[in-house]
Amino acid sequence: MKLPTIYNVHLVAIIATLGGALFGFDISSMSAIVVTEQYITYFNNPSNVIQGAIGSALAAGSVVGSAVAGPISDKIGRRDSIMFACIFWLIGTAVQVACQNYGQLIAGRVLNGFTVGITSSQVPVYLAEIAKAEKRGSLVIIQQLAIEFGILIMYFIGYACASIPGSASFRTAWGTQFIPCVFLIIGLPFLPRSPRWLAKVGREQEAIQTLANIQAGGNVDDPLVIAEWEEIVTVMRAERESGRGWRKFFKNGMWKRTMAGMSVQAWQQLSGANVVVYYLTYIAQMAGLRGDVAMVTSGIQYAVFIIFTGVMWIFIDKTGRRTLLVLGALGMGFCHFVIGGVMGGYHEEVPGGVGDPPNANIVISVFPGAPANTVITFSYLLIVVYALTLAPVCWIYAAEVWSLGTRATGMSLAALSNWVFNFALGMFTPPAFVNITWKLFIIFGVLCVVMAVWFWLFYPETCGKTLEEIEVLFGHDAPKPWTTKKGESRLAAEIEAVKARKAADAPLSQTVTHEEKV
């Protein structure tokens, strides 16, 4: 018996972005646990390279997952590639729950990372391909909200489990990672396939009907459906003529899109926000907070993250992508400079490690009072700026810039870029806290300033345009990025042209000629 299909795009997005919740769960599966006595004792106080390897194991697996996600998605579809990824999450979570040493813990996190590599690249692709142009940002941002809810929920699960004695503490916390994956597996069969993927693999009539079900309540002769289908067909024809293979990512101006999609994800990591997201418990202890106060203070940041990303959900399609990227980079750079400057000017060295038991990754203590309060305040402010700007926009922009023929693999390349830098920073950060301490934040501040200049010079505005229109922004005769503006979509004019044709009774079935079929 055929299962019913859900076509309400926001409900579809909520189910699909449970893949983002997996991402969030794995991010904070360590945050509340790495400072607990149970974890430090059981794993023999891992520090420096070992803790870096544990923390970055997720990213290592995600690099591999991202690398294979595109070909898998093009072969079996966006929806089914997400289902495929869930298998590795169940195995990885089981390995973590049963681990006897940090080697097995790393292996489990690598397997979970493989899942995250696929879902983090293909869920935005899926959402971008089913969304209307004017609502695409608000739909894709649900993925970011799902990540943040996953982070918040898992963090406080870990915090609650900290009161359980022995290794059952972290094993119980890690075991809860099964829950979102099971819900995702149950929900996926009820979701429609991407109409653009259906068109790509030659299933035109199914693609048309799916597009109509999503966009116009099933009416295949709706002007919006006809106009959007004709754009899809035109772009597919051009892409067939452009050839196959990896060269298509660099020829005929495509290198601009490849550069934009991959660099925006690299810059998201180089902004340094995830250093604060992953290791605010360390920063809180540097600022003199201990025990439950440090844990709750760190957890509040995740709630702040959700609140301000929720605010941006309302405005994301009313504000240009370029504007948010440039202002976000500058705002985060300012916060990094303040945190690093205060830490550098008002601290004392603690070579044995801060805390009880001492944490070998935290070797400075910021003076209490105004200096410590400033560090915590600007750490929160950095998260606020990140939640309003780079956190959602980098994923949206990376999903928008690719052509139909390159979108799945292109988004895999973008996610690969994200995870390579995530892995590098995951390995770099714990030793950096020990070896260069406060200077780490100055480095990220400088990178944020460079990033703002890069965004302004190289990224055209994509907000409010159809995925097919974005092709023009990266072509040979494209306008300079700093001259582009949000909106100004040609789809409205094409809809009017369709309405004029409909006066001559030209239904959609007549617009799909034999020559246009893929």
UniProtKB/TrEMBL annotation:
<dbReference type="InterPro" id="IPR003663">
    <property type="entry name" value="Sugar/inositol_transpt"/>
</dbReference>
<dbReference type="InterPro" id="IPR005828">
    <property type="entry name" value="MFS_sugar_transport-like"/>
</dbReference>
<feature type="transmembrane region" description="Helical">
    <location>
        <begin position="410"/>
        <end position="428"/>
    </location>
</feature>
<feature type="transmembrane region" description="Helical">
    <location>
        <begin position="172"/>
        <end position="191"/>
    </location>
</feature>
<feature type="transmembrane region" description="Helical">
    <location>
        <begin position="266"/>
        <end position="287"/>
    </location>
</feature>
<dbReference type="GO" id="GO:0005351">
    <property type="term" value="F:carbohydrate:proton symporter activity"/>
</dbReference>
<keyword id="KW-0812">Transmembrane</keyword>
<feature type="transmembrane region" description="Helical">
    <location>
        <begin position="323"/>
        <end position="346"/>
    </location>
</feature>
<feature type="transmembrane region" description="Helical">
    <location>
        <begin position="299"/>
        <end position="316"/>
    </location>
</feature>
<dbReference type="Pfam" id="PF00083">
    <property type="entry name" value="Sugar_tr"/>
</dbReference>
<comment type="similarity">
    <text>Belongs to the major facilitator superfamily. Sugar transporter (TC 2.A.1.1) family.</text>
</comment>
<feature type="transmembrane region" description="Helical">
    <location>
        <begin position="109"/>
        <end position="127"/>
    </location>
</feature>
<feature type="domain" description="Major facilitator superfamily (MFS) profile">
    <location>
        <begin position="12"/>
        <end position="463"/>
    </location>
</feature>
<feature type="transmembrane region" description="Helical">
    <location>
        <begin position="49"/>
        <end position="70"/>
    </location>
</feature>
<keyword id="KW-0762">Sugar transport</keyword>
<dbReference type="InterPro" id="IPR005829">
    <property type="entry name" value="Sugar_transporter_CS"/>
</dbReference>
<feature type="transmembrane region" description="Helical">
    <location>
        <begin position="440"/>
        <end position="459"/>
    </location>
</feature>
<dbReference type="InterPro" id="IPR050360">
    <property type="entry name" value="MFS_Sugar_Transporters"/>
</dbReference>
<feature type="transmembrane region" description="Helical">
    <location>
        <begin position="7"/>
        <end position="29"/>
    </location>
</feature>
<keyword id="KW-0325">Glycoprotein</keyword>
<protein>
    <submittedName>
        <fullName>High-affinity glucose transporter</fullName>
    </submittedName>
</protein>
<dbReference type="InterPro" id="IPR036259">
    <property type="entry name" value="MFS_trans_sf"/>
</dbReference>
<feature type="transmembrane region" description="Helical">
    <location>
        <begin position="82"/>
        <end position="103"/>
    </location>
</feature>
<keyword id="KW-1133">Transmembrane helix</keyword>
<dbReference type="InterPro" id="IPR020846">
    <property type="entry name" value="MFS_dom"/>
</dbReference>
<feature type="transmembrane region" description="Helical">
    <location>
        <begin position="378"/>
        <end position="398"/>
    </location>
</feature>
<feature type="transmembrane region" description="Helical">
    <location>
        <begin position="139"/>
        <end position="160"/>
    </location>
</feature>
<keyword id="KW-0813">Transport</keyword>
<dbReference type="GO" id="GO:0016020">
    <property type="term" value="C:membrane"/>
</dbReference>
<keyword id="KW-0472">Membrane</keyword>
